[in-house]
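Run: sequence + protoporphyrin IX containing FE -> complex structure.
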Amino acid sequence: MISILEDSKILWGLGQVVNYCVTRTTFPLVVMMGSFLLALLLAVHYREMRKLPPGPWGPPVVGYLPFLGVRHKTFLELARCYGALFSARLGNQLTIVLSDYKLIREAFRREEFTGRPSTPLMHTLDGLGIVNSEGRLWKNQRRFLHDKLRDFGMTYLGNGKKIMEGRIKCEVYELIANLRRAEGAPIDANSLLALGVSNVICGITMSVRFSNGDARFERLNNLIEEGMRLFGEVHYGEYVPLYNYLPGKAQAQEKVAKNREEMFAFYQTLIDEHRETLDVDNVRDLIDVYLIEIEKAKTEGRAGELFEGRDHELQLKQILGDLFSAGMETIKSSLLWMIVFMLRNPEAKKRVQEELDAIIGRERLPTVEDMPHLPYTEATIMETLRMSNIVPLGTTHSPTKDVLLNGYNIPAGCQVIPLINCVHMDPNLWDEPDKFNPSRFIEDSGKIRRPEFFMPFGVGRRMCLGDVLARMEMFMFFSCIMHQFDMQMEQGAALPSLEGTVGATIAPKAFRVKFSPRAMPVAVPLAPDHPHLRHVGAH
Ligand code: HEM
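>> structure
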């Protein structure tokens, strides 16, 4: 009886409040809420009409953008809630996220998924190069680069791999010598690794080799690092173009373009030098290959068709920029993660070193030929790639026409993102995915196991173009460091965090480590000189 009485009092009170609200001060609020509900209803209707995958909704105009936070982490939570295929409107961009490996494979093997989204950033890059181009330009350039880079040794077949191994070896020797110079004192290995890895890609593409401490190299690296930070700053502008007109953001856009100009000026000097010294019977690098192709097209009267009519030298410069940024940051970050995981997992570190000592011995350094005989070392590299997920969202794709996937409509022009970190940490695919366990990649027979849900290089038609080089390079750098040095933290220092810094890749936060020489160090010759390499900077 008492409770009924109290309930009726409460109801009466609530009625008064609602009455007051609707009729007086909060009327605008009610109108706003009404409009929001209406927009939500329209949005649900729109989604059903277009048969889009399910997903969260946000307010009109901005959509789910204000709740995005760290993209790969938020997408992971949304995938757990909405399933393997979900959609979200981020500003003016419809985004579709795939987190099931079979769906990712099914989508990315299809021609229609080879497009790239049209965003302000893509416009800054003019759709040139290889990473951001699409259509015929991308298709022809991908085939061309694939063949030419194979000629420079990016292959496991035949003698080609010897050429590449020679280049990598030269940088590994230099790194070992530089690490020895530190005499076991704690150092941040970031810049030494950046130097070695950059020299490999710069050697192949433009016959340039930088020396330690070279100001030009530091400037180039700063430009890349700043570029990544600036992309982060104007990131929202990808979804809400008006954002780029806010105070400070327009300047950031301008700085992106200015930095690109400075990088291009550096490439232009090299292109001019190459043109002056070009010898068609003695091809030195990728710049030579392109210059010969351009000349050939001119002589055959098809200069206008080459690169789909785009400016020849701009295309070459964007290719150099793409390969430098795609081939440098990724490998450097992966090597840093390998060091982090070794410091955090001393048992695994010991097993790698035991395997190296047993198979290689202490009198020589590992080579690419040794790779199949060092399964635990290779598995450790693979386990690092799985757990560090340096490119957790791959590169965004965009369907070139409306496509049906899993019964849903994926409209032309939307953004399609593969959630690689979700696949790599899925407990239904991996036993205890949070545990660092290289053995999961080794079969009972002792051979390497490569499950189809292991996809650090992406899959399908736009899969990484440098995976062969990346695997060779990571193996050579990692196995030689592990063979020659023991790594420890400074006394009392905390282990490096597994929480990385999110940029174009996810890189470990800065840390210092001691590289103590192991017993019987192998003498490393001074970097063997490649006849065409042009040394930049002082030793
Ligand atoms: C650990 C090292 C590396 C990782 C984890 C990695 C990963 C990836 C991923 C996930 C993609 C996107 C695939 C997609 O769009 O679906 C990609 C694309 C690409 N990568 Fe790598 N990559 C690495 C090293 C390299 C190296 C060394 C090169 C240089 C030769 C390179 C060149 C490229 C290029 C050119 C593309 C664009 C391909 C296209 O759009 O058709 N990558 N990479």
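>> summary
The first strand starts at residue 85 and ends at 90. Confidence is low (pLDDT under 50) at residues 1-11.
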